[in-house]
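Researcher: Structure for this, please.
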Amino acid sequence: MVSIDGTNSDFDWQCDNLTEKPQYFFLVLESGDSTQDDILARRMHCKRIAMQIIAKMMADYASGDSTMQQLLPDTLIMRGIGPVVDNYHGVLIGFNISLSTNYAIDETAWL
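Model: Predicted structure, token format:
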């Protein structure tokens, strides 16, 4: 599994408040042969794992668990991916969280 942090962000204006929506990604990958059947089998296996990750995320979100409290469920995506690096194939899981943003100008940051 490979994770990609939330340095990419979308922004949204809701209820007179600017919100930042950092993007996060997981890659669930497996290495194997280059045959089409093997590639498809690895992707399906990785998809089953990814569905369990999503199920856990949604269970934590639904229970009010603080680790997933700011998850935006409508932003969850899954995409097939590969080959990556040395013949790894699998799936990418992407999602956003919502953070309030202070959009006041810091006068000391400007020349």
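Researcher: Any notable elements?
Model: The longest helix spans residues 36-63. The mean pLDDT is 86.
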